[in-house]
Amino acid sequence: MKSLPWMFALFLVPTAAFAHPLGDAAAQLRPGEWVELPTENMAPTMDTTNGGVPEYGDSGAWDPNTDRFFIHGQGHEGGSGQFRVIQFDAETNRWETLGQPAWYGGYPHQISHPYDHNTVDPDTGTYYMRPFQWNRIYAYNTAAEQWDTLPPIPDWGEYSACCGGLVHFPEMNALVLAASGEVVAYDYGAGSWSSLGAAPMGGYHNFAEYSPGEGAVLLGGGPDDSAGGSGVSLHRLDPDGSLTQLADAPVPLGTTAAVTTADPVSGVFTVLTDGGVLRSYDMATDSWGVATEDFPLPVFNTVAAPVSDHGVIMFANWDTGEPGTVVLMKMSPFTPEPEPPGGDETGGGSGGASSGDAGDDTGEAGGGDDESGAAGADASGSTASGVTDTSGAGSSGAGSSGPAADTDAGGTGCAVGRRSAPGWWLAIMLLAVGSGRTRRKPRPRR
Q1: pTM for this prediction
Q2: Could you tell me if residue 438 is inside a domain?
Q3: What angle do CA 284, 286, 287 make, to 5 degrees?
Q4: CA distance readout (Å), 391 to 53, 367, 380, 396, 400
Q5: Average of pLDDT values for 265-293?
Q6: Which residues pair with 83 in a beta bridge?
Q7: Among 238, 90, 236, residue whose Cα is nearest residue 170
Q8: CATH of the domain at 202
Q9: Which of left, alpha, beta for 439 (phi over 0: left; psi -120 to 50: alpha)?
Q10: What is the pLDDT of residues 125-151, one digit of tens each?
């Protein structure tokens, strides 16, 4: 009779340990591993006829209250009828479109890409997004599924700061927007905007990301020098509103140059650059490291967000004609890069400058057409080469091409990178000796 609980565990572990595939896959990862998560309906949801939702994207936004991932956007050549807001619902493992909000009828521009214009306040379950080159921020209550509009940003016209970084800053109780060298904040309590000052950076394609470990925001990036800085310019924003310039990054940052987000466990920043290189940046020590060099996704058409209640980062990539790929990454503890032998220059020295120059050219080719309105011919060319490199990496070791082909068929298998994740047999053994994982409380359906 003593063996009965162990026998029952054989049947209960695979079906009842976690509430949905994302939670199950995230719980099996060890530090330094990534896993491909097959999902349903990704391609039809992302496809906007002339491109897709994640074009010119950097961030998505994860709501831990509903376990949903949000993003907005459209293809670069699509008209106003192509714009949409979409979500990934982890409970159903399915991508869905929320359509065009009513406020979109008063939006004066024809296109709107995601950029780094997506963030969530987890305390209120509010998803915030900013359309392209617009002085208004829109708020979506994820529980009530209703939209609201924040007051216009003072002194910003309809064509101000096309594409920056928008982020929820809990210690400041504010929404922060960094764009074209300006940093402004919306105080939730006061219901008003204020200027936090200037921060030299690139003129567009900027980013802003929050670190829960530091309780501070990292911002900067951009492909040119029109706002007093460049793609390697970085700044720290603290809760008192002070801005501190940090050492230049060793690689260009900002939309089309990199995908920047933060590890929800440590708060260390994660930066995806082309060639499958996933870097890490510790703002506390102002130092860089390399997490992996075989990540299966390119920069272009990839967006990311910290999944705070599951301790991983979610990356989503979709390109025309592809089924789409979702990758979950569990970061390793931060390890700084060793200093190069014999010389006094580190990552920000001559090597960093050379990388910055090359990256700036890429950023201008891929991002310049946002301002001119021309088709992204150079960006499309670079994207094609990135996809080719990625699929090659996947077939050689990551196994990305196999499971990705089944994403829209609703498959549930996952391809694990770096090391093999623990199998069901290990989960059963752990449960048998009293070390099973804690069950996640299911949330009510909406």
Answers
A1: 0.75
A2: no
A3: 115
A4: 21, 24, 17, 9, 7
A5: 95
A6: none
A7: 238
A8: 2.120.10.80
A9: beta
A10: 999 999 887 788 999 999 999 999 999
